[in-house]
Amino acid sequence: MEVCSDCFQDEGLRLTAARLGTESDAPCPNCGSVAGAKLDKRGLTNLAHSFFVRGTLHRVSYGGAPVVQFNTHQRTSIRCSAWLERDVQLLETKLGVGFFHYGPRLWMVGEIEPLKALQVSEKRPEIVERILRDYPTITAETEVVFYRVRIKPDDPGSPAEYDSPPDGFTGNGRLDSPGFPVMYASPDLEVCMHECRAAAEDDTFAATLSPTRPLRLLDLTELIREEHVTEFESLDLAVHMLFLAGDHSYEISRAIAAAARDAGYDGIIYPSYFSLLRTGAIPFETSYGLSHRIIPQLVDYEKAKILPNLALFGRPIKDGTVRVRCLNRVVIQRVDYSLAFGPASVD
Ligand SMILES: [Zn+2]
């Protein structure tokens, strides 16, 4: 044991150390505290990574990168708040590392050729065509169950309320366009609750749904293998970042949905924007600047971070391709926040 959670002045660092450390009756060799959770060198490394690397992740339009990194080769060159200075010195001494401003590899902040092409309307169709060709098709059989959530429907007991929105209300979502309604659903009910921003005071209802015939779906949650392709040319990373981006990206995802419909698909399975919140996973993870998504041994691990959303084209309930198995009122009873911390500012 090297140090304990009571060794730290910064509240976020102290709380993280308390979570990562282990209980021990022995006094801390550094500060003498018995009550503090004790951390060995490995725990301290995880603490430094959680606070300074994950805790400084800066999201940009597409992708994101940590502002701070640390390693054993560099001396500390960042300046932190006064209450953090001694904590940084403690980590430096115990781990033999320095903290510095991280210059990300540019693919991490969206410098990916297919992603850049998708943002230019003349170049978009070619990449959309590649997406339809390279991503797998899967079939949702009739026993598959998924959910759709509505806040304050006019008539909660009516199945029609859970269909795609009526004309005049389409064109606001990630995949629908005016005149092209899309039903959003998910096999994960909590993802549905996040996706529709349901709050405790809302009157919320959920429909349990199943297909009435096998549905042909384009699976964009798949991690596609690309031989001899760097991150800078990766279609996989382009699509991954596209679906973790905000509403500035909708024009592109709507083009993919329209092309999939024209190609005869019933819908799309795509990564939920809230995947990372639900799984607690770290976005855009790298080792030595390489994306974990292109490292074969990490493919399953990366795929487990992503939760699927389901988008079905048209009005599946009215069209009879989806049946309502059950309707329920949903009450949010308790919300668990899992909090991680980072420095408020770094110079
Ligand atoms: Zn201590």
* Count of alpha and pi helical runs: 11
Bound molecules: zinc ion
Sheet with the most strands, sense and barrel status:
5 strands, mixed
Provide the succession of SSEs.
Answer: EHEHEEEHEHHEEEHEEHHEHEEHEHE
**Radius of gyration (Å):** 23 Å
Please estimate the helix content: 25-40%
* Mean pLDDT across every amino acid position: 91
Class from secondary-structure proportions: alpha+beta
Instruction: Categorize the overall geometry.
Output: globular
Uncertain spans, ≥5 residues at pLDDT below 50? none
Which features characterize this protein?
binds zinc ion; 5-stranded mixed sheet; alpha+beta; 3-stranded antiparallel sheet; 2 domains; 11 helices
Structural features, described:
The longest helix has 14 residues, at 82-95. The chain is globular. The chain has two domains: 3-104, no CATH class; 110-330, no CATH class. A hairpin with a 4-residue loop joins strand 3 and strand 4. It has helices at residues 11-20, 41-53, 82-95, 113-118, 124-134, 189-195, 235-243, 250-262, 275-279, 299-304, 316-319, and strands at 3-4, 38-39, 57-59, 64-66, 68-71, 98-101, 137-140, 146-151, 182-185, 204-211, 215-219, 267-271, 286-287, 290-291, 308-313, 322-330. The chain is an alpha+beta fold. 28% of the residues lie in helices and 20% in strands. A five-stranded mixed sheet has the order 7-11-12-15-9, covered by helices on one side. The chain has a three-stranded antiparallel sheet with strand order 8-10-16. The chain has a two-stranded antiparallel sheet with strand order 1-2. The structure holds zinc ion (ZN). Zinc ion is lined by residues 3-4, 6-7, 28, 30-31, 33, 36.
